Amino acid sequence: MLKKLVFLFVVASVVLTACGGAAPAEPAAPASNAPFGAASCAPNCTYADMVLCYPQLGAESDWRTANSASFKETADQLGVKLIFSDAQQKQENQISAMRSCIQQGVSVIALPPVVETGWDAVLQEAQDANIPVIVVDRSVTADPSMYATHIGSDMVLEGKRAAAEFNKLLPNGGNVLELSGTTGSGAAVGRAEGFRADLNSNIKILDSQTGNFTRAEGKPVMEAFLKKYEGQIDGVFFHNDDMAIGAVEAIKAAGIQPGDLVMISVDGTRGGFQLMLDGWLQADVECNPLLGPQVMDLGLKLMNGQEIPKEELTDEQTYYADQAEELLPTRKY
Ligand code: AHR
């Protein structure tokens, strides 16, 4: 009887295995929210051990150029091997660059996301490969357990700072226009949110259009605004200096003089400082692109298995036209 039972058990197991049913499970894959592990050199990893992947989102602005340079120069100085690519504003290019880095088994990925959404799958792939991801500059909507940390500017605060300037300069209210950054980007979403949250109720946003953070698109958007809202505009909020530079060409061509409109921008680049010197901008809200050293420091800590904060926001300020002459010669970007 016992022999018969054993025989039946063996037959049943073979059949189930062949059908792919209840075969003995392989050890489970790491849980999706498993903590990031340290590198094999931990706790003694040095910058010479680091291979850092930086799938840059593009080269749309002076800010971006300075940000790329900061990563390249810092990597050179520290002896970090940098895998740098330019996604030309396309999320799919950033994702394939990340996948290639995962395949190469890099130590850390630093991701400046072109837009906020759509990162879950590739972040999961990095996590499954035990590669920590540092989200740089703009934010993502993915759950924070999907990446190691976020480092960059407080984009909502930047919008609030811009609103504070309009509140000061248009105490009796007025009509303003907004030249917004790339649609769906953390920078544009945050700045728009902060701006609306703090703008006085007597200041009306007449219209908001994207100029994609570029000079080339800032100009035609401003031309269209000037045509459509002729005689109604009191101020313009630019989400970055490059769009302001492009727009000023259109504003000049329309015969508007420096100081006729209240104009506030974001970034604090040399180009923005020059606009302040020339009387076009009254204030420029800082957004600091020089993130290379901080990111590499955090990356090394992660490789060595050290705890790091979940978010590091850059300490920034607002610059004013009367500071431009003194500060412009020493601006690094
Ligand atoms: O994400 C930062 C923004 O991106 C900067 O304000 C802008 O200039 C850049 O292109």
The poorly predicted ranges are 1-35
Helical amount: 40-55%
Distance between the termini: 86 Å
Strand content is 15-25%
Sequence of secondary-structure elements: HEHEHEHEEHEHEHEHEHEHEEH
Q: What is the number of E strands?
A: 12
Strand order within the widest sheet? Answer: 2-1-3-4-5-11
Q: Strand pairing plus helix content: what structural class?
A: alpha/beta
Query: Rg to the nearest angstrom?
Result: 26 Å
- Specify the overall morphology: elongated
- What can be said about the biggest beta sheet? 6 strands, parallel
Q: Can you give the mean pLDDT?
A: 91
Q: What small molecules does the structure contain? A: alpha-L-arabinofuranose
Q: How many helical elements?
A: 11
How would you characterize the overall build of this protein?
The radius of gyration is 26 Å and the shape is elongated. With 333 residues, the protein is α/β, with parallel strands linked by helices. It has helices spanning 2-18, 62-78, 91-104, 120-128, 155-169, 186-198, 215-228, 241-253, 270-277, 292-303, 321-327; strands spanning 51-56, 81-86, 108-111, 133-136, 149-152, 174-180, 203-210, 235-238, 262-267, 283-286, 311-313, 318-320. It is built from eleven helices and twelve strands. The structure holds alpha-L-arabinofuranose (AHR). Alpha-L-arabinofuranose (AHR) binds at residues 60-61, 63-64, 137-138, 187, 213, 240, 242, 266-267, 287.
